[in-house]
Write a structure and sequence with these properties.
It is built from 10 helices and 12 strands. By secondary structure, it is α/β, with parallel strands linked by helices. It binds iron/sulfur cluster. The site of iron/sulfur cluster (SF4) has 10 residues, from loops.
């Protein structure tokens, strides 16, 4: 299959995806951060809408050149927890493996924007072997999360080598892939790629999707090819101002994903990446959105709202808790989906 041409920074204006007057702005951003989108994503953009939620995610903007005091080059502290190249070992029972730092599209809010799309983009065979040795040598590691960049950009043969190597490590239970490909370049999910994921161990795929318009028939077909191969599918979404900070948009996205057999897993609070302040909602706004979904849509459609604590202190749930102290005697208040409080008895003694 012939791959669709990637749209780079100098192609955006000729492709009609931005006004001609924005070329210089786009070029200035491209000097700082990687810029690319696929034909599939470009087809979703409405250039006549200055607030288009797809364009906001992929078309560079001068706002990215503004740095705030809160911004960080490594917002979730990958570097701090990297014992060998390509591995991040932040939690005892799991590691990230980052064999590639290229993506099919470059999200304007990316938390790894200081490294993705930049050189060196691929791990050497030797470095990858050392990274897999690290996993083999650490028996507490139960899960490997293959991420990047986007591991589905690897040639299926290379992907299969990684899966085979991990599949042979006895103490591993799960191999999990994080990818934007089924949404951004669904034609890439060909039989060879699906076959590359075959393993004795459980292989999970987590798809990154932020807006219901990304759930196209082609994306659905790509996801179906994976689910028909017996691969459980989850999703991750980044909460983004001007893209999906709206209860109706999130509801449509999460329902659409579940209807595609993809279980919404994480709703990420946007990280403090450089030049992304314009995308960030406050935590209170995120909690209001999550609370508004609670009780109104199926639990299947509700991901966990999480924040990666800046500096590498890990991911924590930040959704509002429905239970709060009611009396000094230990009774509780629990809030229903309409915001009404109900009394609940104190905890049993002892
Ligand atoms: S696909 Fe993921 S790693 Fe790649 S640019 Fe988007 S957020 Fe960053």
């Amino acid at each position: 299959m012939v791959r669709a041409r990637t749209i780079g920074p100098d192609d955006i204006v000729p492709a009609g995806l931005a006004e001609p007057g924005r070329l210089e702005e786009i070029r200035r951003v491209a000097e700082e951060f990687a810029v690319a989108l696929t034909a599939d994503v470009a087809a979703l953009i409405d250039p006549a809408d200055p607030a288009d939620p797809i364009a906001a995610q992929f078309i560079p903007s001068a706002a990215e050149l503004l740095t705030t005091p809160d911004d960080r080059p490594d917002p979730i502290g990958d570097e701090r927890w990297s014992p060998v190249p390509g591995i991040v070992h932040r939690y005892a029972d799991r590691v990230l493996l980052k064999p590639i730092l290229l993506c099919p599209v470059y999200c304007r809010f990316c938390f790894r924007r200081e490294v993705v799309g930049k050189s060196p983009a691929m791990m050497t065979r030797e470095a990858l072997a050392s990274a897999i040795d690290y996993v083999r040598d650490h028996s507490a590691v139960w899960e490997v999360i293959v991420t990047g960049g986007d591991p589905f950009l690897l040639a299926p043969r290379r992907l299969a080598e990684i899966v085979r190597a991990l599949d042979q490590i006895p103490h591993l239970g799960v191999i999990r892939f994080h990818t934007r490909v089924p949404i951004a370049d669904p034609g890439r999910v060909e039989p060879a790629l699906v076959e590359a994921l075959a393993a004795e161990k459980a292989v999970y795929v987590v798809v990154h999707a932020n807006h219901p318009r990304e759930l196209t028939p082609s994306a659905r077909a790509a996801v179906t090819r994976l689910s028909r191969a017996g691969i459980p599918l989850l999703s991750q979404t980044v909460l983004l101002r001007g893209v999906n900070d709206d209860a109706a948009v999130l509801e449509a996205l999460f329902r659409g994903l579940v209807a595609m057999r993809v279980k919404p897993y994480y709703l990420h609070h946007a990280d403090l990446a450089r030049g992304t302040a314009h995308f960030r909602t406050g935590i209170a706004a995120g909690q209001r959105l999550v609370r508004s979904l609670r009780g109104h849509i199926s639990g299947l459609c509700q991901p966990t709202y999480v924040l990666d604590i800046p500096g590498g202190y890990g991911k924590v749930p930040i959704a509002p808790c429905a239970a709060s102290a009611r009396t000094e005697a230990g009774e509780w208040n629990v809030e229903d989906g309409d915001g009404v409080q109900h009394a609940y008895p104190a905890d049993p003694q002892g």
